[in-house]
Amino acid sequence: MISRFSKAFLFIVLLLFLLGSIVLLHPPSRAYIDPWTGDLFGEGGVEKELQHPAGTGGKAVHGGVIMSKLGNATAKAELGRATWKLLHTMTLRYPEEPTQDQRDALDSYFHLFSRLYPCGECAAEFQQLLKNYPPQTSSRRAAATWLCFVHNQVNARLHKPDFDCANLDATYDCGCGDEPVGSSAPAVQAENDPMDMETDPSKDATTGVGMIKGGR
Ligand SMILES: Cc1cc2nc3c(=O)[nH]c(=O)nc-3n(C[C@H](O)[C@H](O)[C@H](O)COP(=O)(O)OP(=O)(O)OC[C@H]3O[C@@H](n4cnc5c(N)ncnc54)[C@H](O)[C@@H]3O)c2cc1C
């Protein structure tokens, strides 16, 4: 007759055997990203369902705030001033008639920005603003005016004076010079064209100083 202790012992051994079999039959999957194609590979080939969905609806773009609270008030204000300058200058140089791709890019930018802005509590407030007032991307004027409005919402919360959005152009004139719409991309391409033998790629175009060679 088998004692109660032996029964329990046999039961535990059987349980461990079953668990071991399950682990061996289903080893943890290993995945890696192909550096050439960007495809995500697993042991069974490309794992399409693990890839981020394309477009502006991607999880990474619309996720929550990443950064922690920024305690230092001076750093917060300096960061804010520099950031507003960047954002307003960006919308004021955004195309007058953007393509769908350019519109998606700006929309994704603001949503990603709202996740990664280094002041976590500011980012959380900004995410709420984006929910209430989604980015306007249909034209330069729409984008610039939308951002001005959103900045004024932040101003109001911080008890700062309202900014007159009619003064945007004068305040953010970066002296960058206006490019004719649609001509900027080809101009840059032509400058960097490796087949253009008129320019010497081993020298800096402005200073004429030879470039340091190395790397890949
Ligand atoms: C997305 C974001 C969220 C923030 N959230 C917070 C927060 O929650 N708490 C906090 O303490 N700080 C926050 N800040 C920082 C804050 O907005 C200010 O930048 C900071 O307090 C410094 O204020 P400032 O008075 O120097 O002027 P800023 O608001 O930084 O503005 C800089 C300059 O921009 C111009 N300006 C003002 N309003 C507008 C407008 N509507 N449109 C165009 N130009 C304008 C003015 O010339 C002004 O001097 C945030 C910053 C950003 C970018």
Automatic annotation (TrEMBL):
Keywords: Disulfide bond, FAD, Flavoprotein, Oxidoreductase, Signal
Cell membrane as UniProt keyword: no
The protein's name: Sulfhydryl oxidase
Signal sequence, renumbered to the chain: 1-25
The keyword Disulfide bond appears for this protein: yes
Biological classification of the source: Eukaryota, Fungi, Dikarya, Basidiomycota, Agaricomycotina
Cofactor requirements of the protein: FAD
Enzyme Commission code(s) on record: 1.8.3.2
Reactions listed under catalytic activity: 2 R'C(R)SH + O2 = R'C(R)S-S(R)CR' + H2O2
Transmembrane spans: none
